[in-house]
Specification:
Elements lengths: L1 H42 L11 H5 L36 H11 L7 H16 L4 H26 L6 H19 L1 H25 L6 H11 L5 H22 L8 H11 L1 H32 L6 H15 L4
Helix pairs in contact: 5-6, 6-7, 7-8, 10-11, 11-12
Length: 331
């Protein structure tokens, strides 16, 4: 009996010691956790880790996570028109291509706001140039938008007058030129609008000449030829090629099996486009003659087969299919 009591007291002591040890471990663990939390709190800054937004940072959104810009769905499948190039000092080279790039994204007007369009442009510039010229490019873009809106307001009074009179167009064009130089500077305006203004001046001069009742037909032709000096050499070359193409196209449409290409027409094509063009035109004409001959034979044979009174419909169909396989194959 005494042995049982002794064993009971022994187990109670062991349990008490174990309980005190467990409690001590819990207390120490709690203090360690509190110290860890305190250290973490001290390491955390008291202000946001986001950069403080200056004026420039507000105007240029932070770079998106994607490495390539995501264009608006209406631009998918199209190539970006225009580009921005930099000089050796990292500044934008003023060129017509800069305006082309702006116009490419401004084609989204009506589907996106100007701010959304601006964001699309920023994504493109970040991907193609990085961040260095962004301020300069966006300042130019903003001034260009301002110009477009000012030009729209400028044109409103002329809408009721109409643009058929040379004097009206002359006044409008002069005001536009002044506006461009005031808002963009002469240097930017020259880079952006030089070709357009040259062509507009040429078109205006053509209108003045064509409506001048004091000029004879020969004088008008001479004046129109001289007016082409208002165009740049590149514009004159493009115009020459365009009209040469239209002349050849009209000439080619006049050819038919009953009116083949004569020696004079062949020589004109040879002088403008070379011997290869003459050979191609002759080949096309031969193909047209061959096809026309096949078409005439087709109509005649079809009429003969289906007018047979002593042949069943199934037999007519069989004869027609046999004729097609023999004479109307792609070869």
């Amino acid at each position: 009996m005494e042995s049982i009591k002794s064993n009971s007291r022994r187990w109670m002591v062991i349990a008490l010691i174990f309980g005190l040890g467990l409690a001590l471990l819990l207390v120490l663990g709690s203090r360690s956790s509190a110290r860890s939390s305190s250290a973490s709190a001290k390491a955390e800054p008291l202000v946001s880790s986001q950069p403080i937004q200056t004026f420039e940072q507000v105007s240029i959104p932070s770079q998106p996570d994607q490495s390539e810009p995501v264009p608006h769905h209406s631009l998918e499948g199209t190539a970006v028109n225009g580009e921005i190039r930099l000089d050796s000092r990292g500044h934008i080279i003023l060129h017509r291509d800069v305006r082309r790039l702006f116009d490419y994204y401004l084609s989204l007007r009506g589907r996106l706001s100007d701010e959304e369009i601006r964001s699309q442009l920023i994504q493109h510039l970040r991907a193609s140039l990085g961040t260095a010229p962004l301020d300069e490019a966006l300042a130019l873009f903003d001034r260009y938008i301002e110009l477009l809106e000012a030009e729209a307001r400028l044109s409103e009074p002329y809408a009721d007058i109409g643009h058929s009179k040379a004097e009206t167009l002359d006044a409008l064009m002069e005001e536009r030129r002044k506006l461009r130089r005031d808002l963009l500077s002469s240097e930017v305006s020259e880079a952006f609008f030089q070709d357009q203004e040259r062509y507009e001046s040429y078109q205006l001069e053509k209108l003045k000449i064509s409506t001048d009742q004091t000029l004879s037909a020969d004088e008008k032709r001479q004046a129109l030829a001289e007016a082409e000096s208002l165009l740049s050499p590149e514009q004159r070359l493009i115009r020459k090629k365009t009209f040469a193409y239209l002349d050849i196209k009209q000439l080619a449409q006049s050819f038919s099996p009953s009116r083949p290409m004569d020696a004079q027409s062949a020589e004109m094509i040879r002088q403008r486009f070379g011997e290869e063009a003459v050979n191609r035109m002759q080949k096309v004409q031969q193909e047209k003659q061959s096809w026309d001959s096949k078409r005439q034979d087709y109509l005649a044979e079809r009429l003969r087969i289906f007018q047979q009174s002593d042949v069943s419909p199934d037999e007519k169909k069989r004869q027609w299919e046999a004729y097609g396989q023999e004479h109307l194959s792609p070869s």
